[in-house]
Amino acid sequence: MDGIKLELKLKPKKPIIIEGFPGFGLVGMIATEYLIEHLKTKRIGKIWFEDIPPIAIIHKNKIVQPLELHYSKEHNLIILQGLEGIAGSEWKLAELLTNLCKTLNCKELISLEGIGSPTPSKIPGTFFYSNNQKGQKQLNSLSTELKEGIIIGITGALLLKIEKQIPYTCIFSETYSSLPDSKAAARVIEILSKYLNLNIDSKPLIKQAEKFEQKLKSFIDKSREIKREKEKKDVSYIR
């Protein structure tokens, strides 16, 4: 596929694939970061785009790729985390993920997202969409089925691309902030944990998510600063 490349060191059989990308409140990013840390996954690959901004992230003395694939053997989960926007490449990534699901005969693809709200709610809502009848029945007891809505970005592309080719579920959490929303991410994790029987302890989740929130906010601020400098055709060095 032109301009996009998948590198995968391990090919688990019939895994569940979970993806989270920048979006409203950075919910998907925070949620996947928590899963990666909490489930003690190992990195098994990456997705490479030629047009991804040239921003290198170093965390705990290791280079973190903008789009990494992690694996939990215990739960047979592949987690795709995007730390950089993919505007303009949504269709290519949707096709790559669809093909990956078919190749690995994945049990289900799950998208984690924030859904925008114009004003704060006393009790923020959670919503879901699923083309999986079994999943629908289970999620009905955990959340509210999304009856009306407009979904954009990679999740929108996946919804249109996949249709009923593979089992596909989206879990949304309401957020009204353009800043990282760790509480919204926590609500997504709580539903996902019950849905997949992950037995994640929810008590330290928000506190842990707030740490990720600060890390991600720092990354985004630096990323935006570099992009502004690039537009001015200046060279910027980060120490």
Protein described:
It is a single chain. It contains 6 helices and 11 strands. The chain has one domain (4-213): Rossmann fold (3-Layer(aba) Sandwich), CATH 3.40.50. The radius of gyration is 17 Å and the shape is globular. Strand 6 and strand 7 (77-82) form a beta hairpin. It has a 9-stranded mixed β-sheet, sandwiched between helices. It has a two-stranded antiparallel sheet with strand order 4-5. The chain has helices at 27-38, 90-104, 133-140, 153-162, 182-196, 205-231; strands at 4-8, 16-20, 42-49, 57-59, 62-64, 67-72, 77-82, 108-116, 126-130, 144-145, 168-175.
Proportion of beta-strand residues? 25-35%
Question: Averaging pLDDT over every residue, what do you get?
Answer: 83
Under the CATH scheme, which class?
Alpha Beta
Quaternary structure state of the chains depicted: single chain
In the predicted model, the low-confidence regions spanning at least 5 consecutive residues are none
Q: CATH topology, what is it called?
A: Rossmann fold
Question: Percent of residues in helical segments?
Answer: 25-40%
- The end-to-end span amounts to 35 Å
Features:
single chain, 239 residues, alpha/beta, Rossmann fold, nine-stranded mixed β-sheet, two-stranded antiparallel sheet, 6 helices, 25% strand, globular
Task: Describe the structure in brief.
The protein is built from six helices and eleven strands.
Could you give the topology of this structure?
Layout: E1 4-8, E2 16-20, H1 27-38, E3 42-49, E4 57-59, E5 62-64, E6 67-72, E7 77-82, H2 90-104, E8 108-116, E9 126-130, H3 133-140, E10 144-145, H4 153-162, E11 168-175, H5 182-196, H6 205-231
Parallel strand pairs: 2-7, 2-8, 8-11, 9-10
Antiparallel strand pairs: 1-3, 3-6, 4-5, 6-7, 9-11
Helix pairs in contact: 1-5, 1-6, 2-4, 5-6
